[in-house]
Amino acid sequence: MRKIRKGLLCTVLFVGVAFSALLQAAPEQPLASQNSIEVTYCIDPNWAPYEAIRNGIHVGISAQYMQLIAELSELKFKLVSTQSWQESLEFVQQGKCQVIPMMNTSDYRKQFLDFSVPYFEAPNVLVARTGTPMLQGYSGIGNRTVGIVQGYRQVEYISRHYPGLRLKLIPSEEEGLKQLANGEFDVMVGSLMSVNMHINNLELEDLHIVGYAEPFDSLAFGINKSFSHLVNKLNVAIERIPETKKVEIYKQWNNVQIRYSRNYTVMVLSSAIVLLGLLWLISRNRHVGGYKRIIQQKNEEISALQATLLEKNKTLGFLSAYDTITGLYNRNHMIQRAEEEISRFHRFHTTATLIAIDLTPVDEDLFSHDPSIREDMLKTAAQNCLNTVREVDIVSRFNGEQFVVLCPQTQLDSAKTLADRLLECMDTHYLLNDKYKIAIGMAELRDSEEFPDWLERTIKALYQSKRQGYGNVTIAQ
Q: Which of 50, 108, 222, 322 is the most buried (most CB within 10 A)?
């Protein structure tokens, strides 16, 4: 189980040292100009290393991103201190602070918040005590009790998609890990880097990472709807952050070391026993002892290779479902999910709708000189899709500059509303509207219809949208 934990991701041992250094040498903010706009913000005060408050100072990954955004815009940020994440959510909802810099979107939060484009992604993991087997996401938890921080997006997600799970709300990930170690519940959901840091700092040797928890964090600014004019300013600044700066921040907080705890008494006794055993073996039969040592070495190498192979297979399994450029699901995964939806339709008669989106470049020469521009546009389009669709919808990059959205248990009228919203979002985006012509086709699943037929009708509707001059949504007959 230790190998699994170390193989999943390194643990953050010296993040306390990084926090101390940041406190002692907090970066100076640039002088605000007369046109500076002061923006008040709240954070999760106990979510290190993503963000935290130490001695009244905001530190962590979000602090560094906010410094970059302040340098790239006329915004000047002012921290409003809170005692917990739940209090920060209440403050931003009441307007006591205008934004929260690092949070996930959800249907509930969209009632009182607008969101910027995401700028940092991180996985969530399941943590349990020694002896717990590897868990395949929430579906593998069974009748175990799950601990989760109050106010986190995962509470809403689990309540909607896994209503049978028993939840225990906790004030913070650090406190939750202590309760988990004491046996107050069975499994905890937490952010990978934060969980690893607390496990090592608290020396909780009996806790291990036992699986991933969907969905992964896609973190963005949450803005009180009364201050929605800040959304565009933040988006423009985020888009201007150089990739080198993003990599530099990630490396700084992911520059980890593994700490090994040693019981020297056991080590001395073990060494003595091994030494006596070796002397006895040498005296009995020098050659037999040599062969045994060789066999043992080879067995250890085989075990290490098997562990490495297992980890690589898990990584390949994860990557095989995703597109490498946009991060969306790929064609094969979309086909698999669509066939599952067809099977559900045949059993329960719950309909579904397929939406196809095609981006046709206005000027092919623009992309031929610099292929990276095409990739940036595809990423932008993919992010627009994710920001527009519902959580239940499945978005994939199906082929080239063609995207397919599967809307489970969704009738044609509801899907048409979603398709119109997708068209408007892409058609008005400042990076896409002058580089692409957009066509959208859609089709509702029919009785006795298989996926190739369903897809063919959807693509025909897409071509009809192109023939009508783009910029419209066409429904298949």
A: 222
Model confidence pLDDT, tens digit, residues 271-301: 888 888 888 778 777 776 667 778 888 888 8
**What pairs with residue 358 in β-bridges?**
402, 439
CB under 8 Å, gap of 24 or more: what pairs does 284-290 form? none
Angle, alpha carbons 434-240-118 (nearest 5°): 90
**Tens digits of residue pLDDT in 315-364:** 676 667 888 889 899 999 999 999 999 999 989 888 999 999 999 988 87
CA-CA distance, 121 to 217, in Å (whole number)? 5
Distance between CA 325 and CA 150 in Å, rounded?
34
CA distance 189 to 36: 40
3-state secondary structure of 344: helix
CB atoms within 10 A of CB 194: 28
CA 161 to chain centre: 17
> Which residue's entry shows tokens 């298989």?
450
Q: How many CA atoms lie within 13 A of 339 on its CB side?
A: 7
φ, ψ for residue 47, nearest 5 deg: -125, 45
Sort residue 215 into left (φ over 0), alpha (ψ -120 to 50) or beta: beta
- Give the sheet arrangement for strand 51-54, strand by strand: 46-47, 51-54, 57-59
pLDDT-based confidence at 169, cuts 50/70/90?
very high
Under a CB-based contact definition with an 8 Å cutoff, are residues 215 and 322 in contact?
no
What is the Cα–Cα distance from 445 to 438, expressed in whole angstroms?
A: 23
Can you give the pTM of this predicted structure?
Answer: 0.47
Strands 75-79, 37-41: pairing kind: parallel
Backbone angles phi, psi at 457, to 5 degrees: -65, -40
Q: In the numeric block, which tokens belong to residue 382?
A: 């993919």
Which whole-number Å values give the CA distances from 404 to 18, 51, 73, 395, in the listed order? 43, 35, 35, 6
Q: Which of 145, 215, 142, 130 is nearest to 185 (CA)?
A: 145
Structure tokens at 135: 């868990």
Using DSSP, state whether 211 is helix, strand or coil. strand
Tokens of 370: 């610099």
What distance in Å separates the CA atoms of residue 403 and residue 382, rounded to the nearest whole number?
8
